[in-house]
Every structure is written in structure tokens, then in C-alpha cells.
Recover the amino acids of this structure.
């Protein structure tokens, strides 16, 4: 059973500790932190526990003090052997080093005070650990093993080392929120079940994480099942115990008409003020390029030196990042600017304020980021979100309201991922010969695989045993043997063990695509970015604008562009999608607020542009954690939309506009459907396919969080749109989407990733790294060949699953369509002479960037002018 | 599609020449998957099967007496891989069980060591080029020799031609094609790759002058791209025109 834990008294909590540990703890800490009031006793009584709490809440000690107590008891009784009693797994190597230090320190202090004869040992084992240390660990296994998910998976196949796990008592999973929602975590969940099987007994599972929701699902992910019974787990939720203060800031009064220079200088003034007021400020920019630009501008405008301000993001070298982290810990920096890299994990010392530039796109992420400030648990975390467009103002204000209401976005775990499972089946077969039944039931103990159909498991055994090639080639293709009659499988091939070690893991190779102008190499872009480009697109590289011509394999060819503006922002692949829950919250706000505004409209409606007198409107605005500029901009936004279009779209009402762009001669159908980009990705494709088939023409699609736009050279009628929606109700849309995805670049790319994870396309073979270039062949033919083997060929199936469920959100898109069918969600199609205010940002999404957005602003200003012209007449 | 005396069998990368009672194709790269597997890329086996399907259909229909492989029957440069060996035999046996009496191979850059198998395979091998009637077959990695002067037709492989089209909304499609035009008063035809996994070179996007010495001083802009679609062959116009429209 999954249940919430109860708080124990201080004495109850401290009373369960080993006397030496207790003495050390009380000497070093005056007070228990909130999670510790729950955890000490629970862990000491052998319960599985999930602890979520913000940074600085003594989360790690809430687990380790109890564990050290147990080990110290054993040492005192002379029962501590050279065996691993506790495994600590964290996805971040840097965190491993921190933990190692944090455990070693109390142990040394205790030993120097008590002079124990038997010492508790701690060992660290990651990809960085050298051979000598590994050998040493083999001879003298540490009592506490600090490791990563990947190193743990490797250790499971070391027959000798895993011998020392036989007495394992605890496994601690740190940063659970970083694992539970992705394939890396799925991979770990199988490792843990394999570990339990290897030990021959169950152990106590402790999960540590920052904010995540729903906690019950996180707990299930942590503990899994024992056959068909869910394992017990207690939840300790200290997420909300930290005090937070926050606000959405709009840098200028008139966000539409202010000049770019004014907006920029105002943003930097606000940031400078915050930096000056505080000891250390952490700024998040969402993108790497933005990070560099902010650092540069702050130095230039306010004469900060390199000793005072630094950038920290994933593209910087490890040395630089470690250097910045060191300076932060010592409290030497006034300000650090980060893309996302400082969002999680390692202790970054004393930060008293967080500034977020642009929307963080999810409630959970807002809490995590703002929560990086206020170093100690009882300090207040403080954060400002600065945004410069009206959708973001609404989005971030509602986001922060949601934090106040303790609402969070839901995470979801990828289910039944076949590529990850393929790896573990190979790993398991390297351990020993298996009965299919036993292996299948082990796999189903892991939460992400509890609903795995047996047929999928068998299909994987067949694939891995090389059944897709003739008998004579299985020697090379087969990674396992599989005896169908006997219902058994086991290892095969002399290279399999090496293949397993060298290719294990779930993170696809980061691929850089080389960009050439003619024969001249000019730089590289990410593969994902390439897969979004179409000929004629203009993008920035090394400060210059280039037009995309074509690509071949991992090379991209461009020409110099005369245009002034990029059509695709360079950070496109970095941009995070809006969470569904937040999208719905924004919809609810739109519904409530637009009703209040409509009620308060004066008789001569255009007067509303000058202001509205209404207590109800004022009350709703007052509740928003936003500054004055932000509130007045939001009000103005809604008034304009109502005056212009009569309708404000919300979560239960989709506004569809048929309109045209005089500049590009394109016809637009704009769906104001606020469901987040993942849902809209699926919805927009479905409609574009249906309409495209009807007209026998390609329909273009632009997708954003707030809706999507279909564009075409001809005009679509409202009847066509209605019919298209009706068609979706009676169509197998999963099949429709699959057929469409089949021929896309995304499918090829994802297929290659899944093929790599399933050991079909190796990244590393016989000690040689295989370049991604070599992995290129006609992916389309490969897909067809795979389809011919069986439409259920596991790698193919997984590729579709990943695209439809992880990249897009087809399940929710289906729900939305169902609700449209049942009229729970209504829609209205209108014709507009120019796009309505709520769709301006959607139309210019391709140009969106908070720190560099001149082009976009210009277009919005133009659209806005036309709208105002029309509504002030009425 | 008829090109005078040469017929492109619709929807296939294969030509039929009635006068020679022959079908011809190029760049099979047999054993491809096996060689890839040795490199850690475990593709499902499809190449030989697909080739057999396609050639089988054409042979059944046209009942030719000979087949001309215009180079690169197998994949590996330096040695005969066991997979290639097996597939080569399977392919030859397959041909033997049909109307085909003579198998002619124009040796390409990947076909070293095939000589050794000449007798056991029972095939006729020419190095790089052969004049058969008025048709001059050459693989294409070397310039056509003196004998080509006597021919009306130049037929080559090696290049793996294809065109890439982007639709107005950015979808990318790559289609295998023949290239057809004239070269110093003769008709010239470039055969697409028979290999199922071959990516193909986008002749409308890429510079092809280095792919074969023949193209180093011969512009392919005036050649027509005859594309292989499902069941049919479509003339997409000249490469030059295609190059223009692909630059948006």
C-alpha cells in the first residue's frame, strides 16, 4: 500500500538512532528538518520511503542518518563485514562526489571521537572511476556504494562484485524527479529488480526527490511490485514547507509599443537592481545562447567583472563549470547565469534570489528554480519571472498562482519501453540461463513494465535471438539464444558481453551536424535542429545568417542569407513544451477573467480600451502574483480580444479563426487551443492530414503551446474545418498519425536512437566507436524492411510509442477530440480580417526569443495596430 | 518507358534491351547487410530478397537470355566476405533457374576478387567496360575507353543517382532515378542503384562532378531525371530545372 507518513516527535526520531550517530547529529544540528521528523523512524523500522523536499532540507541526511545508524549498530556488534549494505544511485556524477564527501565527513568525525575498531566504508563507482579503484573495490567491497544508474547496470553483470551484494539492505535513489519521467529512470527500475533477484531478497527502497506529482505514482515507480502485489511505501512530502516569494514582472508599461531598446534597458535595470540588493543572484535564461548574451550585457552595461559574474551551461567545458560551482560554494560570485544546468542537483551554496527570464513552462520547474534560492531550509526562497509578451505574462502569473494553490504538473513514466528492456534482457542472459516465465515476471515487478504484454516480451526474445535473419547469420546477429519449446533463453556470441558494456545506457549519442557553405565548413548544429529545417529556412550560426539548402546524412548545406531575420530560432530544440496541467489552469483563468471583463464592458465598448471599473476584475487581478505593469497589460490583452473577436478561447472553448496574412499571401486557420505543444503537435497533424487528403494539397503546420496554425495557399472554408473535425471522430487517428509520421525525418532519427538502445545499430563495437555518419544508410528502406518483418517489430513499435506518447501526447489529444465530440469542449469558427490579438504570438512563434526578438516584436506591433484600428472604429 | 531501343521497365531500376535480349541493372552490393553486421550495424536482410523480387518479375515478363550487371555486384572493396559469397551464389543460382543463359558482369570498384570465382560462378566478366552491339556498358569510375566511339549508347552505373524533393511544407522525399541525355553525340543513360539500402546521391542538390571522371567536364544539367515511383517511371524534367526549383 502507498500511504502518507505521520510525523514523529523529536525524541521518537532521535531515539531510534545509534548513540554515536545521535551524539554527532545533535552536536552538528540544533534541529531536525521537516523530512527528518518522518524519515528516521520509518527507515529504522524497515519501511520503503519516498521523501520529497526542496534543496537544503537535509533530505540526504534524512535517509543516511538512519542508514548509518544501522551500520554503526552492526559495527558495534562486530557484525559489519566487507560487504555492500547500501547502494546510493544518483543520475548526476557531480552529486556523487558531494555525497561521498558528505558521508565521509561525519564518519571521520565520529571515528576520531569514538575510536571505533570497525569502520564503515564508502566507495564511489562511476564512469570516471579508474581501474585501480575498481579492483580495490572488488577485493574490499565498500559498505556504502555510491554510483550512477549506468554503472549499477554494469556492476550487475560483474559476477564477482555482485557477490558482495548478497547482504544488501538499502538502496537510495536520489533526484528521483530526474529519473521517473524518462528512459534513464526506466532503465534503473529494471536494474533494481534485477538486483533484488540477484540478492535473493528484497531490500529497503528510499527515494529522494524535489517536487513531483503525483507522489503516489512516484512511490510506485520507486518500489514496484512483488508479483502482482504493489510493494508498501510511505510518502514524506515536505515540498511545501519552504517559504517562497515570487512575482511576474513586466519590464515596461506598454509592452506592445515600447521600443526594443527601452524594453531591453528596462530588463537589465531590473536585473541590476536585484543583483545589487542581494548577495548572490542566480539567473535562468532557458537557452544557452541567451545565457552568454545576458552575461555579456550585464558586464558591458554595469561594469561587472569576471570575478563577479559567470555563465554556467551545458556547452561549457567541465573545468569551467566546476570552477563556477566552486566559486558559488565559496560565495564569491555576485551573479551566475545559467540555461538549465543549475536547476538541479549539486549544492550551489548561498543564493538569495532567482531571476527567470522567459517562462519556465511548468509549475514544477518554477518551484525547482525559485527553490534554488534561500540556502537554508528556513530561509525564504525568492524569485522573479521577467517576461515580455502578453501570453507569457498570463502564463507565468497563472503559473505562480498555481504554486500558491499548491498545484503541480503531472509527470509520467514511459511505459513498456521495448528498447530499454532489450538491453536488460541481454544483461540478464549474460548472468545466467533463464526460464521465460521467471524473467517475464521479474520484469513486470518494475513499475514501468507492470502492464507489459507477454507477446511484447516474446517479440523481444525473438528479435534479440536474431530470428529476423536466416539461421546462418544468427551467429553474428543473435545476442541471445531462445528456445521456444523449452521456454528458455540465455547468452550467445563471444562479443555480446563487450557489446553490452560498451553500448549500455539510454542517452542517445549527441550528434553534431556539420554545416557547409559550398565546400567550406562553417560550424555545426544539433541533429534535432536539422530535422526541423526546411529549405529556405534562415537561421543563425556563429553570428551570421544562413539559408538552409539541403542536407545529406550528417552534413547540412547552406548559403549566405541576405535576409535580416531568422525564420527558425536557434534554441528551437531547447524550448520546453508547456505542461498540460498548466495549460488547463491558464484556460480556467481565461474563462473566469474574460467573463468578469465582459460583464464590466461600458456601453460604448471601445472606451474599455482606456480602462475598466469593476471590483470583480480588480479582485481577480489582485490575486495574481504579478507587478502593476503585468496586470494592466493582461487586462488590456483581454479587452482587445473581446472587442475584436467577441470570444476569448479557454480550456473548454476552442476559437478557430479563418484569416489571411497579407504579407505572405498565405491563408491561415488558427486554432486557439490551449493544450500545450505536445497535444497540439498531434491535433494539428491529424487535421492537416485530413484536410490535405481532402484538397490533395500539402497543408503547413505551425505548432505552439497556445494553439496551432494550419496554412495553405488556398482558402479553407468553415464547413471544411467542421467536416475535418467530424472526420476525426470516426477515424483511427493512431493509424492516421503513424502513416504520416512514417516518412518524416523525426521518425528516422528516433528510429536510429531506438535501434541504438536495442543494440541493433551499435555505437561501439569491438572496441571501436562507430561514427554516426556510418550509422547513416537509407533509413526509409530500413524502416520498410523492419515493417516487412512484422508491423510489430519491437524497435519499430517502440519508435512509434516514443513519438506518439513521449514527444507528442496522443492519448490526451484523443481525449480532447472525444470531448469535442461530446460537446464538453465547444468550438466556434470565425472569419477575421486580421488575426485576433490572442493569435499574434502563435503566428510569430518561430521568431520567439526573449533576449533577441526584434523581428517578432515588429510583426506583432503591426498586427496589433491593425486590430486597434478596427476595434476603435466599432 | 521507351527510350528508343532501350526500355526502362516501369517502376524498376532495370532496363530491357530487346536487340540484345538482355536486361541490365547496376550496383547491387550483395552482402551489404553482412558487411554492415561485421561493423556492428545489424540490418534486417532485405537487399537480396528485394533484388530477386524485382529482377524475377522483370525476367518473367521479358524472358531475356542474358543479364548485364553494370558493376558493383558485391559490396566489400578489399575481400570477399562470406556473406557476399553466399549471396552471390544464391543470386546466380536464382538467375540460372530462369530464362537467363548468360550472366555478364562489368567489374566495378567493389568487384575485386570476383575474378577468382569466375569459373565456379560461370559468369562472363569484363573489366570496367564492354561493347555489346551498339551498346557500350561501363561502370563509371573510369572514363569510357576507345571502344565507346563505336557505340550509340553509353550505359553506366556507379553514381547512385536520386533526386530530393522538399514539399512546400518541408517534407523531404528522396527518389531514385535514371539520368538520360546525350554525351558527345551519343545517348547516355545512368542506371540507379539496385541496392535496397543505398541512400542515393541527390543530383539536383549536390555537386556530382567528382563522382565520376566522366562528369568532371560534362554538365548533367541537361539530363532528364527519370524517377522510379510505385509501378511507374516518371520524367521529372531536366536536372537543371530541378536544381532551380529546389532552391527556394
Amino acid at each position: 500500500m502507498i500511504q502518507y507518513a505521520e510525523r514523529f516527535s523529536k525524541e521518537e526520531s532521535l531515539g531510534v538512532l545509534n548513540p554515536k550517530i545521535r551524539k554527532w547529529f545533535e552536536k552538528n544540528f540544533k534541529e531536525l528538518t521537516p523530512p527528518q521528523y518522518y524519515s528516521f523512524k520509518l527507515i529504522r523500522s524497515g519501511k520503503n520511503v519516498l521523501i520529497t523536499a526542496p534543496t537544503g532540507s537535509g533530505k540526504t541526511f534524512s535517509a543516511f542518518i538512519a542508514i548509518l545508524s544501522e551500520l554503526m549498530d552492526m559495527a558495534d556488534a562486530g557484525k559489519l563485514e566487507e560487504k555492500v549494505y547500501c547502494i546510493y544511485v544518483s543520475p548526476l556524477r557531480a552529486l556523487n562526489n558531494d555525497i561521498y564527501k558528505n558521508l565521509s565527513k561525519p564518519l571521520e568525525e565520529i571515528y576520531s571521537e569514538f575510536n571505533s575498531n570497525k569502520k564503515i566504508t564508502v566507495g564511489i563507482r562511476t564512469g570516471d572511476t579508474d581501474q585501480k579503484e575498481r579492483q580495490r573495490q572488488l577485493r574490499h567491497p565498500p559498505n556504502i556504494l555510491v554510483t550512477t544508474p549506468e554503472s549499477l547496470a554494469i556492476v550487475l553483470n560483474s559476477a564477482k562484485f555482485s557477490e558482495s551484494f548478497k547482504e544488501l539492505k538499502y538502496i537510495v535513489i536520489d533526484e528521483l524527479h530526474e529519473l521517473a519521467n524518462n528512459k534513464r529512470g526506466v532503465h534503473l527500475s529494471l536494474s533494481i529488480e534485477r538486483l533484488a533477484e540477484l540478492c535473493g531478497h528484497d531490500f529497503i527502497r528510499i527515494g529522494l526527490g524535489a517536487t513531483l506529482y503525483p507522489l503516489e505514482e512516484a512511490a510506485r515507480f520507486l518500489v514496484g511490485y512483488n508479483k502482482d502485489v504493489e510493494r508498501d511505501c510511505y510518502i514524506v512530502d515536505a515540498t511545501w514547507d519552504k517559504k517562497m516569494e515570487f512575482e511576474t514582472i513586466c519590464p515596461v508599461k506598454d509592452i506592445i509599443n515600447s521600443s526594443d531598446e527601452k524594453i531591453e534597458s528596462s530588463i537589465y535595470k531590473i536585473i541590476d537592481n536585484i543583483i545589487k540588493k542581494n548577495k548572490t543572484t542566480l539567473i535562468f535564461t532557458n537557452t544557452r545562447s541567451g545565457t552568454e548574451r545576458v552575461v555579456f550585457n550585464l558586464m558591458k552595461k554595469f561594469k561587472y567583472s569576471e570575478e563577479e559574474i559567470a555563465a554556467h551551461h551545458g556547452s561549457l567545458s567541465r573545468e569551467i563549470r566546476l570552477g563556477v560551482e566552486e566559486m558559488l560554494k565559496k560565495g564569491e560570485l555576485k551573479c551566475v547565469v545559467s540555461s538549465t544546468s543549475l536547476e538541479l542537483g549539486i549544492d550551489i551554496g548561498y543564493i538569495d534570489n532567482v531571476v527567470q527570464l522567459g517562462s519556465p513552462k511548468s509549475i514544477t520547474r518554477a518551484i525547482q528554480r525559485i527553490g534554488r534560492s534561500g540556502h537554508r531550509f528556513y530561509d525564504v526562497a525568492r524569485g522573479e519571472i521577467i517576461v515580455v509578451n502578453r501570453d507569457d505574462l498570463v502564463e507565468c502569473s497563472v503559473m505562480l498562482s498555481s504554486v500558491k494553490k499548491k498545484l503541480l504538473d503531472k509527470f509520467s513514466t514511459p511505459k513498456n519501453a521495448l528498447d530499454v528492456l532489450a538491453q536488460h534482457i541481454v544483461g540478464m542472459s549474460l548472468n545466467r540461463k533463464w526460464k521465460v516465465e521467471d524473467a517475464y515476471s521479474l520484469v513486470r515487478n518494475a513499475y514501468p513494465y507492470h502492464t507489459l504484454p507477454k507477446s511484447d516480451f516474446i517479440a523481444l526474445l525473438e528479435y534479440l535471438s536474431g530470428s529476423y535473419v536466416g539461421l546462418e547469420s544468427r551467429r553474428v546477429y543473435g545476442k541471445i539464444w531462445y528456445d521456444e519449446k523449452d521456454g528458455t533463453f540465455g547468452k550467445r556470441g563471444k562479443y555480446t558481453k563487450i557489446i553490452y558494456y560498451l553500448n549500455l545506457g539510454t542517452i542517445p549519442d549527441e550528434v553534431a551536424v556539420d554545416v557547409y557553405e559550398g565546400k567550406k565548413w562553417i560550424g555545426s548544429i544539433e541533429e534535432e535542429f536539422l530535422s526541423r529545417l526546411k529549405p529556405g529556412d534562415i537561421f543563425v550560426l556563429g553570428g551570421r545568417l544562413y539559408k538552409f539548402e539541403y542536407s545529406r546524412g550528417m552534413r547540412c548545406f547552406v548559403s549566405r542569407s541576405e535576409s535580416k531575420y531568422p525564420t527558425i530560432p536557434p534554441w528551437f530544440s531547447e524550448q520546453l513544451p508547456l505542461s498540460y496541467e498548466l495549460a488547463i489552469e491558464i484556460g480556467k483563468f481565461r474563462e473566469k477573467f474574460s467573463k468578469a471583463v465582459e460583464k464590466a464592458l461600458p456601453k460604448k465598448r471601445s472606451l474599455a480600451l482606456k480602462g475598466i471599473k469593476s471590483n470583480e476584475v480588480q479582485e481577480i487581478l489582485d490575486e495574481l502574483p504579478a507587478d502593476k505593469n503585468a496586470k494592466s497589460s493582461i487586462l488590456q490583452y483581454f479587452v482587445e480580444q473581446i472587442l475584436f473577436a467577441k470570444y476569448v478561447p479557454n480550456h473548454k472553448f476552442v476559437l478557430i479563426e479563418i484569416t489571411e496574412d497579407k504579407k505572405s499571401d498565405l491563408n491561415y486557420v488558427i486554432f486557439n487551443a490551449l493544450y500545450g505543444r505536445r497535444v497540439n503537435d498531434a491535433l494539428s497533424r491529424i487535421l492537416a492530414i485530413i484536410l490535405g487528403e481532402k484538397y490533395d494539397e500539402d497543408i503547413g503546420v505551425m505548432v505552439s503551446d497556445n494553439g496551432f496554425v494550419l496554412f495553405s495557399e488556398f482558402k479553407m472554408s468553415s464547413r471544411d474545418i467542421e467536416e475535418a473535425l467530424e472526420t476525426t471522430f470516426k477515424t483511427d487517428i493512431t493509424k492516421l498519425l503513424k502513416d504520416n509520421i512514417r516518412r518524416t525525418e523525426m521518425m528516422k532519427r528516433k528510429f536510429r536512437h531506438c535501434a541504438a538502445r536495442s543494440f541493433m545499430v551499435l555505437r561501439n563495437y569491438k572496441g571501436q566507436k562507430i561514427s554516426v555518419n556510418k550509422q547513416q544508410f537509407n533509413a526509409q528502406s530500413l524502416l520498410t524492411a523492419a515493417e516487412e518483418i512484422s508491423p510489430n517489430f519491437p524497435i519499430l513499435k517502440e519508435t512509434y510509442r516514443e513519438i506518439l506518447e513521449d514527444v507528442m501526447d496522443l492519448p490526451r489529444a484523443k481525449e480532447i477530440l472525444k470531448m469535442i465530440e461530446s460537446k464538453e469542449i465547444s468550438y466556434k469558427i470565425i472569419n477575421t480580417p486580421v488575426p485576433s490579438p490572442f493569435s499574434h504570438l502563435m503566428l510569430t512563434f518561430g521568431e520567439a526569443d526573449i533576449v533577441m526578438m526584434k523581428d517578432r516584436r515588429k510583426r506583432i506591433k503591426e498586427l496589433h495596430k491593425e486590430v486597434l484600428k478596427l476595434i476603435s472604429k466599432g | 518507358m521507351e527510350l528508343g531501343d532501350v526500355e526502362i521497365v516501369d517502376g524498376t531500376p532495370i532496363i530491357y534491351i530487346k536487340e540484345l535480349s538482355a536486361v541490365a541493372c547496376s550496383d547491387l552490393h550483395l552482402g551489404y547487410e553482412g558487411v554492415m553486421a561485421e561493423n556492428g550495424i545489424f540490418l534486417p536482410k532485405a537487399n537480396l530478397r528485394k533484388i530477386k523480387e524485382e529482377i524475377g518479375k522483370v525476367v518473367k515478363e521479358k524472358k531475356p537470355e542474358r543479364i548485364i550487371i553494370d558493376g558493383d555486384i558485391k559490396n566489400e572493396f578489399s575481400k570477399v566476405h562470406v556473406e557476399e559469397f553466399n549471396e552471390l551464389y544464391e543470386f546466380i543460382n536464382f538467375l540460372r533457374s530462369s530464362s537467363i543463359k548468360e550472366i555478364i558482369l562489368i567489374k566495378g570498384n567493389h568487384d575485386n576478387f570476383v575474378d577468382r570465382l569466375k569459373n565456379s560462378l560461370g559468369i562472363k566478366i569484363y573489366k570496367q567496360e564492354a561493347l555489346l552491339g551498339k551498346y557500350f556498358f561501363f561502370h563509371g569510375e573510369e572514363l569510357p575507353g576507345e571502344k565507346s566511339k563505336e557505340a550509340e549508347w553509353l550505359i553506366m552505373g556507379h553514381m547512385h543517382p536520386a533526386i530530393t524533393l522538399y514539399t512546400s511544407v518541408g517534407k523531404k522525399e528522396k527518389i531514385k532515378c535514371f539520368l538520360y541525355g546525350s554525351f558527345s553525340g551519343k545517348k547516355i543513360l545512368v542506371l540507379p542503384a539496385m541496392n535496397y539500402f543505398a541512400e542515393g546521391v541527390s543530383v539536383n542538390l549536390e555537386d556530382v562532378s567528382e563522382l565520376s571522371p566522366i562528369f568532371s567536364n560534362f554538365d548533367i544539367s541537361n539530363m532528364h531525371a527519370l524517377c522510379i515511383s510505385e509501378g511507374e517511371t516518371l520524367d521529372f524534367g531536366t536536372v537543371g530545372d530541378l536544381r532551380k526549383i529546389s532552391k527556394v
Observations:
- Chain B has a mean pLDDT of 87.
- DSSP finds five helices and 16 strands in chain B.
- Chain B has one domain: 2-246.
- Chain B touches chain A at residues 33-34, 36-46, 83, 86, 164, 166-174, 196-200, 202, 205-206, 246-248 (CB under 8 Å).
